[in-house]
Design a protein that fits this description.
The chain has 118 residues and is mainly α. The protein has one domain (22-117). It contains two helices and no strands. It has helices at 22-101, 106-117. The chain is rod-shaped and about 150 Å long.
Amino acid sequence: MSRPKGSKNKVKTVAAAVNVDPFTAQINAKNAEINGIADDIKLISAGIEEQKKLLKQKKSELKKLNAALARIEQAKAAQEAAANEAARKAQAEQLAGVLLASGKSMEEIAALLNSTNS
């Protein structure tokens, strides 16, 4: 058997009982992390609410612009239809004038105009 090292006369010191719980430090660290993340979540939530308001506003603007565009397109279509009708009327009057000048009767002119309009 080997001999123990050190003196047998060495004064033994008793470690002072320190009331240090190794878990307390870990708990405090985790609580600090939790509080930091909770603050981050609050900031992100506030940002999301702000973005939702902005999105709602933009959707409202888009809806108004789409309605205005539809009104403009309807007005354009009505104007084009009126222009086409006026052109057809002018063409029919011109054709009637030519036919009258050539000596056709009103019945023949009416039959020709009806056949070209259909």
